[in-house]
Amino acid sequence: MGKPQYEAVHEFDDDKEFYQYALGITRAIPSEETLRQRMDDIGDSMRQPILQENVEMLRSNGTVPSKLPNGFVPVDIDVTPFDNSKSHKQGVSRTYKGYDGYAPIMAYIGTEGFLINAELREGKQHCQRNTPEFLREGKRVYIGSDWKPVNYQTEDGLNKTVTVRAGYEIIERNIDKHGQFLMPPDLEANTWWTNTDLTDKEVIGLYHAHGECEQYHSEIKTDMDVERLPSGKFATNALVMELTILAYNILQMIGQESLARRGTQSKHKVRRRRLRTVFSNLVMMAGHVITHARQLIIWIGQSNIWRHAFAEVYTTFADFSL
Description:
This protein is an alpha+beta fold. Helix content is 33%, strand content 25%. It has helices at 16-22, 32-42, 47-60, 131-135, 200-209, 213-223, 234-257, 275-283, 307-321; strands spanning 75-79, 82-83, 93-94, 100-102, 105-109, 114-119, 139-153, 159-175, 181-194, 288-292, 295-299. The N and C termini lie far apart (63 Å).
C-alpha cells in the first residue's frame, strides 16, 4: 500500500473485522505500539525465509524474467542512498551523496526489474564492501566418507587390522573474507574418524558442535571466577576444582529446570541458560525474609518476573530432596 509508517495501521480502526478477515489475521488488528514492538522483535531474523519465499512466490505465479536479445537474463545490482537527514536512527550516517541516511544495495533480475535481493546498509558503508557476500557465499563444501584400514598390535603382540570410517569435509573458497577473488581457489580439508552409523552430515555436525565446550570453559573461569585458584598447594586447588564440579552442575540443574517457566520465556528458543543468568535472576534475587507462625517466609517483589520460576524450581528440588 506504500504506507510503511506504523501509524498507518490506524486506517483499519473503523472496520477492523473486515481487515482482519481480508488480511488473514487470526487474532486482531494490532495497535500502532504492538506493531512496532513485534517488528522490533522480528528484526532481521526472518531475512532468509523472506528471500526464499520471494523466489517461491515468483515461481508459483509462473513469473519468468525476460531475456536480453543475446539470450542473457540481466541481474542489475546497485547501491541507492536513502535520505534520512536530521534523524538519530541507528545506522544513519553520511552517504556518498553528501547527506545523512542509509545506503542499501538492491539486486534486480530480468528486463522487468523483479527485486530478488535487498540489504540495508549504513550510509557510510562503501558500496563495494560485502558485495561479494551479497552476490554469493564464495565457497563450496563437499562432504563424504571412506573406509580406511588401521593396523594395531595387541598386548599379546598380535598384529591386527580393523577398518575404520573416515569422514571428510572439503571446502573450496573462491572469495576470501575481504572480498578478494582467489585464483586458484583456496582448499581446506578436514577429516574425522568415527565408528558410528550416522550420516556424514550428522557426524560433521557433531564434531563442529564440540566447540561449544569453549563456552562452558568460559563460564567456569569468568561467571564462577574459578580461573585463579585460591591456594598455594596443589592438592587444595585440586579439591577446589572437584567442588567446582558439584557447584557447576547444581547451577546447570537450576538453569535447566527454569526453562519455559512462567515469566522466563524468551523471544527465541533457549536450549540452556548461562550461569550468569542463573546467578543474576535466581541466586542473587532480592527479597525479604520474615518469620511468621513458626514458618520462614520469603517475600519477593511482584515486579520480579522470575518470582514464579524461583518458587517452582525451589519446590521441584525440595520435593526431589525428600
